[in-house]
Amino acid sequence: MNSNWREVLPRPFIKKYRKLLGDESEEFFSSLMRPLRRSIRINTLKGDLGELVEKLSHLSLTPLPFYRYGFYTDFPSPGATLEHYLGLYYVQEASAMLPVLVLDPQPGERVLDIAAAPGGKTTQICQHMEGVGVVVANEVDQGRQVTLRGNIQRMGCHMAVITGMDGRFLRPPPTYDRVLVDPPCSSEGTIRRNFSALKGWSSELSNRMVHIQRGLLRSGIEVLKEGGVLVYSTCTFAPEENEGVVSWALERFNVELEEVRIKGIEADEGIGEWGGVEYPEEVRRCARIYPHRTDTGGFFIARMRKRGE
Amino acid sequence: MAVIRSGKVLNITSTDGARIQPPGLKERGISFIKDLNKGGRLSSAAIRLFGNLATRNVVELDRKQMEVYLGGGVIEDLRGGGDYVIVKYKGWAVGGGILSKRGLIPMVPKAVKSVKHY
Ligand SMILES: C[S@@+](CC[C@H](N)C(=O)[O-])C[C@H]1O[C@@H](n2cnc3c(N)ncnc32)[C@H](O)[C@@H]1O
Fold this sequence. Notes:
Chain A has helices at about 5-10, 10-20, 25-30, 50-55, 80-85, 100-105, 120-130, 140-155, 205-220, 245-250, 290-295; strands at about 40, 60-65, 65-75, 90, 110-115, 135-140, 160-165, 175-180, 225-235, 255-260, 270, 275, 275-280, 285-290, 300-305. With about 300 residues, chain A is of the alpha/beta class. In chain A, strand 8, helix 9 (about 205-220) and strand 9 form a beta-alpha-beta unit. The longest helix of chain A is centred in the C-terminal third of the chain and has 18 residues, at about 205-220. Chain B is built from three helices and nine strands. In chain B, strand 4 and strand 5 (about 40) form a beta hairpin. The termini of chain B are far apart.
């Protein structure tokens, strides 16, 4: 998969991101045509990190610069090994490991993952909490609940509790110390993994996604305790689904944005304006992960704190 | 850690996992003991989590036997009187099995079929 972006990317997509990225856009488009490096997250719920790294040496691992549990692997099919079945690691795209790093869940807390399947981030949260506390993994789609359950069992996440609600309808009492909102999105950041993200792409797709994203974010804020932390993340570049949704929440709810900077990875700040709409200045505190800078997939990450009354 | 019963299954979860009452609850924690109505057996998830500690009722497979086990076949050169055993390979607890008169009958989830490198 090393194609010419002019032949692969839809014209409106090219037009949109030329406008957003200007001089850098060609570099950005070319980066989308390069295959992603495979990466895994080692599961310290199943053993000591050093020992597991040693036991997985046949996967030829190279550490990620920004996350001690994350590694690139040159092994062609890391999802088909015995060690994978045993839950010693999770095959996870490098940039997809970032939202939980930013959420920074702590042992003993109550954490909600409002849109959880297949469970990459749920199992990562459990790992960070070292098995102490509780992680409520909510997923509305019954088929995807099966995959979520399989991954929770495989990774040994005994502190995870599965629920099957439509996440848009969760209401107080505020129960959670931290909430992750990783909603469905237009998935533009996964094009490097799979061109199929382009199949359903249209200029209107983002506008359709925004409704569900707002609904999930609103619920997440409602069930978050005062002083609690919420991370909103998507694997898309579309400002409507990112800064647009975050600005919508800032206008309506008692939350403030906190700076997202991650050591070891070059993130861009959130953008200030899109499509004639000015976003609040604080939206710059969000992080945009672009593949042409980081050689990963694409992500957007916002970290909010709920203010007291 | 807390143990909770739901029908024929015992699950293990954290103390707070047993306490929390979220709407739309489906399952708490991971399965620990299955088939309680038939005397109970350690689940595959529990074997993968704790099985490495087991020293009794353990069968260690060689590569050829492992191939049969992963494919869901009966390993005829290992026989017994119907005991449930923990199956290990290269020191890893990989799943369960019944040592029957016919041979070792594998008791593993379908997901084991994804294993191609061992
Ligand atoms: C981007 S994926 C989440 C990926 C997941 N966080 C991970 O890291 O593995 C979004 C998920 O949200 C689920 N979803 C969509 N609408 C939902 C809703 N209204 N309530 C709860 N989950 C929903 C989808 O089925 C999908 O599994």
